[in-house]
Each structure stands twice: as C-alpha cells, then as structure tokens.
Amino acid sequence: MKYLLGLLICITALCTASRADVLSPQAFTQEFARALAAAVPSRTVTVKRELELTVTNADGGDTTLFLANPYGDYTRDPARLGELVRSFAAALSRPASGKSSLDRSRIVPVIKDRKWLADVHGALKARGVAQEHLSDDFNEQLIIVYAEDDPTRMRYLTKEEEIGVSRPELRALAVENLRRILPKIEMRGDDRVLLVSAGGDYEASLLLIDEIWSGGQVKVNGDIVVAVPARDVLLITGSRDRSGLKRVRELAAKLVAEGPYGLTDTLFVYRQGRFTKFGR
Asked: Is the pTM of this model over 0.85?
C-alpha cells in the first residue's frame, strides 16, 4: 500500500520539493488564482478544489483549468510561477473567432461520474446560465464528457456548440485523439495491484481504449477489475484476487475522500467488451 501511494503521488505531479520556499499544492492554487485574476480582470477566477480553477467569462461560460502539470513545473523551478500565470492568461485572452475556433483534433473524452455532471448543471442553473455539457453514457455510474484540450487549458464542450460530426462519430474521434496525444502508458505495481500512468491527465479515460483491456497485456487473477477514484488515477486488480480487491477498495476510498480530483470509489469489471459495476 505504501509503495502504491508513493507512486501515485509522484505520477500525479503532487510531489513537492523539500525546500521550505516551495508552496504547497493548496497554497500554489490560491496564489495562482490570485495572480491570474489580476492578469485577466474581465474574468472571474474561482478555486474549485486543490489544483483546479474555474474561470467564468462575462457571458457566464466556464473554463476549467487543471494545475497539476503547472505545479509540477513550478516545484522544479519556483521562479517560473509568473511565467506560468502569464501563459495561462495569454491563452484566456485570445479572442474567440466564432464556431470555427473549435479544433476537432483537440477534442478528447473525459470520464466523470454522474454526480459531477448533475452538480455542474445545478450550479449553472443557480447562476441563471442555460448551458449543458456535451456528454454520453459510459455505464450505470460513469459518463463521458467531451472537452477541447488546449495546451494551457481544458474547455468542456456544450450541447449548443456546432461540432460538425454525429454523436457516434464524436466518440470515435475523441478516442482517436486521445490515443494520439497520450504519452507512453506504463503499468507498475506488484502481482496484486497495478497502477497505470499516462501523463497524469487522462488515466480514467483509458477505460475507453478497448485494446488495452482486450489485448491480453493486463494479466490478473480472474477478470480485470479497475478503480478510477480520480481522473489521474487508474488501479487494476483481478476479480478472484481477494487481497488485491481489498487494497484497491481501500486506496480508492482514500483518494476519493482526500484527493483533489475525486471521482468514485466504485469498482468496475471488464466483461464482454465493457466495464460494469463490480459487486463484492
């Protein structure tokens, strides 16, 4: 368990340098939000959770900024904080060019749980914003939300946008884009539990790449069972491995409760080409 937790912390770029002058993830988030709000006064910058900001435009549209990668850059060189803020501010300040501004080659699928979508839509409705995110069902608990992944930000797409492809084509396009932009996928761990790393942003979305699960490279005791307690965490064990299942459940529950990008502590089993809820 300690080995996996240590691996998790490093892979998600939440390791802080030992120097006393380096901000903690929480302090970095607050300082980044303050500096970004000063740099783009026409936007409202809100801390959603540790290493995640919401930037609201004058028309009520939202952009989500994930700061795990910038925080990793910052810990390696704290003097770059101002440069990182300026880079994000420049991206936010670029003028929109209408419908043609959507880059379909950057559309990616993001795995979320249904509660996340309900909470987001509820918050928008409370602010009087008539906007719904573009999403598809994945299984009984998880959904696919589509986003445009710019090098400096991630913008969730809405149902009102002109995507230019049909819904089945959209999922295929997004998954193919994901394959293209993913770094090397690595699996580490022991003979009980594997931790999958793929850059720290799309580990949960790997559930959508069928060849990972059907190709035979994942070897476990029984059927493949996974947990996606956060968007940047993917754990694997086997359906007949009682010790592995216990460890994955414990770690998933801990990460959902304490992690900055919590999704769900539910376990899912891969059978007949799809992931469904795994019972005890």
From this structure: no
User: Same domain, yes or no, for 166 and 224?
Assistant: no
Distance CA 228, CA 261 (A): 10
Amino acid at 77: D
The verdict on 32 and 110 lying in the same domain is no
Q: Cβ contacts of residue 33 below 8 Å, gap of 6+? A: 45, 46, 47, 53
* Per-residue exposure over 50-82, b if at least 16 CB sit within 10 Å of its own CB, e if not: bbbbbbeeeeeebbbbbbbbbbbbbbeeeeebe
pLDDT at 39: 92
What percent of the chain is modeled with pLDDT above 70?
Answer: 86
Structural domain count of the chain: 3
For residues 39 and 14, what is the distance between their CA atoms, to the nearest angstrom? Answer: 25
10 dihedral zone (left: phi>0; alpha: psi -120 to 50; beta): alpha
Q: How many residues does the chain have?
A: 280
**How crowded is residue 2: how many other Cβ atoms within 10 Å of its Cβ?**
6
User: Residue 186: CB partners within 8 Å, gap ≥ 6?
Assistant: 196, 197, 198
Domain end point (choices 36, 68, 95): 95
Contact (CB, 8 A) for 193 and 237: yes
**End-to-end Cα distance, the chain:** 20
The CA distance from 179 to 190, in Å, is 26
Structure tokens at 20: 């006393």
What pLDDT shows up at residue 258?
Answer: 79
SS3 99: helix
Asked, for residue 27, whether it belongs to a domain, the answer is yes
- Residue 208 structural domain: 186-277
3-state DSSP assignment of residue 194: strand
